[in-house]
């Protein structure tokens, strides 16, 4: 029967298509119902009409499936009702909690420092979206790569870049992870394989695809022992850009070890996802290119983690890319310069009740994984880490003016020839920043 594989997937929602089972089966995709979208009622209504015509199209391909993880937690807990097996150990729970608290406290401190004039340019905060960064990045090895957007501080922190280095970068100081040259939107750390925040939307996706290609090349051509995975994070608004489609195609074609992580916070600055996108279900674009597409509640770190675990493992096994759409919400304006007057207060209030940190705390306490006191101790520790980061950044030196010219051209002669007919880079005043140009 054509739908037998789909039925299996419904019972086993994390069974993302493996090529082996797919070859054998005449599977059809599981199409998410409107209830799969959790927050926006207008989105739910639109999806009812979208879904009416979708079942035939869903049989597009035999070797791709789209799955929902909404029932993961319930399923696991019911699996042994006498002694329900938990989704995480105590140690794992505390790691997740600490990382999410770090992200939140760090960003709140950024807001304070920005309004005190310690940071320059635009600063985009991540409050509300922590379950995505933590749920994915805490599963990575150090050698794995992360590519981010301009909303990148928390991705860098989750990947292990010290808070001191991120804060100093935001202050434009030499001790920052880019020696103060990048600022808020350009977190980069070679040591931690954070390959950059990118200010132009979609710009990071080809970089991530290239990193994944490198891993595959090392493994298959150079025969190196390499199973590294790259995570590409980007927003819903970015999914309407060409680079997204080009890279999905290449990644699927070459079976690259990459996970495309869409942080669908329903807004692109002041543009609603529903107004801008012909089909708001972004995960469906995965199967269109021949890779699994997954929708997950991005306000629930445990669900995100389950989906991330499978998608990362699939990439590591050499089975190719996955597109994961995490439905999430940002609790602040687009940037710290945005008065955030466009979004409906009722929508904001709805998502405030779904705070991912509160949800994890509840899970930990209800399942006796840790006590209130243990969680409080983590919060205290993180307050100290963030305070220390601010002091460190504040006391660090600003870069010399000559640093402005570094890392701009690979060959310094790229600065051209001055009025005296000599290369500008040969004029000492040029590197001191005092030359007339
Ligand atoms: C190529 C390009 N076009 C336009 C912009 C202006 N811009 C900055 S943020 C943004 C919205 C992006 O929204 P989304 O991808 O949903 O990410 P979010 O801010 O919600 O995290 C746009 C259009 C840009 N930075 N780069
Ligand atoms: Mg968005």
TrEMBL record:
<comment type="subunit">
    <text>Tetramer of 2 alpha and 2 beta subunits.</text>
</comment>
<keyword id="KW-0175">Coiled coil</keyword>
<dbReference type="InterPro" id="IPR029061">
    <property type="entry name" value="THDP-binding"/>
</dbReference>
<feature type="coiled-coil region">
    <location>
        <begin position="368"/>
        <end position="395"/>
    </location>
</feature>
<feature type="domain" description="Dehydrogenase E1 component">
    <location>
        <begin position="100"/>
        <end position="399"/>
    </location>
</feature>
<dbReference type="GO" id="GO:0004739">
    <property type="term" value="F:pyruvate dehydrogenase (acetyl-transferring) activity"/>
</dbReference>
<dbReference type="GO" id="GO:0006086">
    <property type="term" value="P:pyruvate decarboxylation to acetyl-CoA"/>
</dbReference>
<dbReference type="Pfam" id="PF00676">
    <property type="entry name" value="E1_dh"/>
</dbReference>
<comment type="function">
    <text>The pyruvate dehydrogenase complex catalyzes the overall conversion of pyruvate to acetyl-CoA and CO(2). It contains multiple copies of three enzymatic components: pyruvate dehydrogenase (E1), dihydrolipoamide acetyltransferase (E2) and lipoamide dehydrogenase (E3).</text>
</comment>
<keyword id="KW-0786">Thiamine pyrophosphate</keyword>
<dbReference type="InterPro" id="IPR001017">
    <property type="entry name" value="DH_E1"/>
</dbReference>
<dbReference type="InterPro" id="IPR017597">
    <property type="entry name" value="Pyrv_DH_E1_asu_subgrp-y"/>
</dbReference>
<protein>
    <recommendedName>
        <fullName>Pyruvate dehydrogenase E1 component subunit alpha</fullName>
        <ecNumber>1.2.4.1</ecNumber>
    </recommendedName>
</protein>
<dbReference type="InterPro" id="IPR050642">
    <property type="entry name" value="PDH_E1_Alpha_Subunit"/>
</dbReference>
<keyword id="KW-0560">Oxidoreductase</keyword>
<keyword id="KW-0670">Pyruvate</keyword>
């Amino acid at each position: 029967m054509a739908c037998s594989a789909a039925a299996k997937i419904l019972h086993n929602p994390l069974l993302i298509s493996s090529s082996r089972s797919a070859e054998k089966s005449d599977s059809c995709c599981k199409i998410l119902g409107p209830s799969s979208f959790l927050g926006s009622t207008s989105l739910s209504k639109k999806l009812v009409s979208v879904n009416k015509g979708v079942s035939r199209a869903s049989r597009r391909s035999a070797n791709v499936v789209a799955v929902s993880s909404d029932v993961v937690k319930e399923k696991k807990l019911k699996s042994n009702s006498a002694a329900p097996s938990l989704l995480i150990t105590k140690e794992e729970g505390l790691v997740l909690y600490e990382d999410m608290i770090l992200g939140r406290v760090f960003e709140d401190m950024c807001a304070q420092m920005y309004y005190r004039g310690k940071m320059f340019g635009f600063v985009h905060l991540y409050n509300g979206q922590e379950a995505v960064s933590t749920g994915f990045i805490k599963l990575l090895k150090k050698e794995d790569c992360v590519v981010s957007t301009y909303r990148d501080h928390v991705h860098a922190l989750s990947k292990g870049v010290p808070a001191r280095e991120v804060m100093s970068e935001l202050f434009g100081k030499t001790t920052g992870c880019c020696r103060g040259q990048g600022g808020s939107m350009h977190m980069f750390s070679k040591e931690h394989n954070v390959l950059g925040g990118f200010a132009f939307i979609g710009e990071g996706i080809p970089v991530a695809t290239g990193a994944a290609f490198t891993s595959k090349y090392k493994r298959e051509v150079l025969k190196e022992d390499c199973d590294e995975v790259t995570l590409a994070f980007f927003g819903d608004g970015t999914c309407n850009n060409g680079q997204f489609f080009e890279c999905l195609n290449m990644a699927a074609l070459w079976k690259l070890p990459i996970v495309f992580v869409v942080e669908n916070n329903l807004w692109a600055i002041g543009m609603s996802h529903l107004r801008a996108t012909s089909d708001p279900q972004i995960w469906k674009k995965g199967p269109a290119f021949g890779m699994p597409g997954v929708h997950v509640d991005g306000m629930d770190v445990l669900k995100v983690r389950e989906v991330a675990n499978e998608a990362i493992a699939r990439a590591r096994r050499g089975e190719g890319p996955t597109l994961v759409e995490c439905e999430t919400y940002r609790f602040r304006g687009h940037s710290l310069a945005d008065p955030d007057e466009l979004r409906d207060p009722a929508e904001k209030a709805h998502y405030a009740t779904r705070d991912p940190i509160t949800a994890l705390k509840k899970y930990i306490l209800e399942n006796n994984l840790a006590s209130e006191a243990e969680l409080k101790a983590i919060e205290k520790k993180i307050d100290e880490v963030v305070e220390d980061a601010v002091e460190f950044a504040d006391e660090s030196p600003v870069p010399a003016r000559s640093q402005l010219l570094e890392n701009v051209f690979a060959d310094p002669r790229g600065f051209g020839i001055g009025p005296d007919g000599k290369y500008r880079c040969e004029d000492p005043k040029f590197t001191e920043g005092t030359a007339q140009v």
